């Protein structure tokens, strides 16, 4: 039996899926892509911990990210309203980034999902291995 609050959540989720238009589906996938992208998630996490930061400082805190990938990630996060870009329009360019309330809410909702995925990583690996084994027979 499904608990009442879980059942209500499933009913609401089903109604949203049935009412979803193509544009909403695209938006949902684009925003959820940030949740599965290590650099998007990393930038959001770094800004939550560090507050308002410059590009170079974000890059220092994200081991392995390239200049190009960080710039691309920052633009996508800004486009989706998860971070703000502050351009001080000075002769020596100075730009800082900060997490928006929407970005903070996104992070706090995604962390439990990430933790759940990591806790069940071996289950996912075993399921995939079993699937590939049975499909190759």
TrEMBL record:
The keyword Secreted does not apply. Residues 17-125 form the HTH hxlR-type domain. Keywords: DNA-binding, Transcription, Transcription regulation. GO terms for molecular function: DNA binding. SUPFAM superfamilies: Winged helix' DNA-binding domain. Pfam families: HxlR. InterPro entries: HTH_HxlR, WH-like_DNA-bd_sf, WH_DNA-bd_sf. This is Putative HTH-type transcriptional regulator YtcD. The lineage of its organism: Bacteria, Pseudomonadati, Pseudomonadota, Gammaproteobacteria, Oceanospirillales.
